[in-house]
Amino acid sequence: MAVTPVGNPYVESSDLVANYPGASEALAERIDIVGVNPFADSAARATAIPSPTEGMMSSLNDTDAVERYDGATWKPVGGKVLQVVSVTKVDTFTTTSTSFVDVTGLTASITPSSVSSTILILHKVAIGPRSDAVGYIQLLRGATVIGGGTAVGSRSSAMSSFFTVTAGGTGDLAGNFLDSPGNTSSQTYKIQARVEAGTLGINTTASDSDIAANSRNSSTITLMEIGA
Question: Which domain holds residue 171?
Answer without folding.
Answer: 82-226
